[in-house]
Design a protein that fits this description.
Length: about 240
């Protein structure tokens, strides 16, 4: 456990350095919240601004954990070997531990940014609870799913361009699959299915266990794959 925590702290230090020491990028969504709030006060578009604020937090939170890989690529996956008391399995597990930390940061940042947005646009916090309910859990869950897909890809390839090409190919494949599904499945049946799923997920007693179950299954697949890819780089 000590080796895992050492690797975790090293990765968090790498991420902090890459983000101008102190996660400065997380200040940007707060600035956007003020800008969107002022714009919403002028034209009544505050509801639309919620998506912009949540999206900016999601973007920052998604990019920062990946920045640790850039250091690893520069170090040729071997510079820290023998320096820290951790093998490659410990290093992978330590990096996965950064995900719940950033998930908590995303929840706190989104809550603060939406509070600033509502205060700027409306002068009160009316509607904040509803905005949080409809956005925070979904964006945090999407962040975890996205990272659990990306991590094995970045462990598989040393070249960032190849990893990003694989990511792009993955999303193109998903888009094609969705398009084919929309073409083959009758629209009425598809809409009925979508509405039923949305209503079921809106119920916390169903949505939260289902979301956690998906994350558990994805972690059970993603983590061993990442460990296997990382250990193949042992020299």
């Amino acid at each position: 456990m000590r080796a895992v925590l050492v690797s975790f702290r090293l990765d968090m230090a790498r991420i902090a350095v890459s983000s101008a020491s102190g996660f400065v990028p997380f200040l940007l969504p707060l600035l956007f919240a003020v800008i969107f709030g002022l714009a919403g006060r002028a034209d009544g578009g505050a509801d639309f601004a919620t998506g912009g604020v949540v999206g900016s937090v999601f973007g920052v939170g998604t990019i920062l954990p990946i920045s640790a890989f850039s250091y690893e690529w520069l170090e040729q996956h071997g510079r820290m070997n023998g320096i820290i008391p951790a093998d490659r399995t410990h290093q992978v597990i330590g990096r996965y531990l950064t995900l719940p930390v950033f998930a908590a940061i995303i929840i706190a940042e989104t809550t603060l940014a939406l509070a600033i947005l509502h205060l700027t646009a409306h002068g009160n916090l009316n509607g904040l609870a509803q905005a949080l309910t409809t956005s925070v859990l979904g964006s945090t869950w999407s962040f975890m799913v996205f990272e659990l897909v990306l991590f094995p890809l970045f462990y598989r390839w040393n070249d960032m361009r190849k990893a990003l090409l694989c990511v792009a190919t993955f999303f193109v494949g998903v888009a094609v699959l969705v398009t084919v599904t929309l073409y083959l499945v009758p629209e009425d049946a598809f809409n009925a299915f979508g509405d039923a799923v949305a209503q079921a997920m809106a119920n916390p007693a169903v949505g939260i266990p289902a979301g956690l179950g998906v994350l558990v299954v994805m972690t059970a697949v993603s983590l061993p794959v990442s460990i296997a890819c990382r250990r193949r780089k042992e020299f």
